[in-house]
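Tutorial handout. Part one gives the primary structure; part two gives the three-dimensional structure as tokens.
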Amino acid sequence: MSGHSKWSTIKRQKGANDARRGAIFTKVAREISVAARAGGGDPDANYRLRLAMDKARSVNMPLENIKRAIEKATGGGEGEMYEEVVYEGYGPGGVAILVEAATDNRNRTAAEVRAIFAKAGGQLAGSGAVAWQFEPRGLITIPARGQDPDDVALAAIDAGAEDVDTTGDELVEVYTTPGGLEQVRKALDAAGVAVEHAESTMVAKSTITVDEQRARQNLRLVESLEDLDDVQRVTANFDIPEEIFAEVAG
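Part two.
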């Protein structure tokens, strides 16, 4: 998991900025819609929906907006039909990039994603080109302040976590199998560990090192992709040089 804590710190900061300008509401509403359509509108029976609703609450999305997204997805109201699409590509320096989207128009989204890759000096690739370099994981983030990272790690391992990263200054990251996320989260809650966020995500199996210029180019590419309303998540496999990380996260 080396390097992933840097990504989490940057994503955390960007998420806060997005929430302030309201951009995150569109993405979260789509995530709720896709989850509700796939597994029903009852969060007690649909863990994916419960995770999406938790994310919505964490960014102060109004309850009425959450209810409306669920109702539209489950037939209680009229709205767009979103489908999940994954795009694969390469950034400058051969960085592998996975783009997960929820769209009501595949042609539009593909054109927008392709244009951003091209503008950044990268290229969109075919299905399977880079996906093998990533794996699905459950990810639980826990604030490092006010909690002993070693105690958190022990509690997580006892709960069934596969890996724990305590190297981050701000966050402790707990990794689980995709199916073990709920079990580990519940156990941490029961142990009194303050969980900040839990989600199903994709993680690079290994990272590659790029120079400062390529790192900046790839960060701009990732940010441009994330700014698209249709894009839910972007994952890349490059490690961020310390000086760039300090600049972006500071």
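Part three, for discussion. The mean pLDDT is 87. Strands lie at 83-91, 95-103, 123-125, 134-143, 163-165, 171-176, 197-204, 208-209, 231-236, 238-239.
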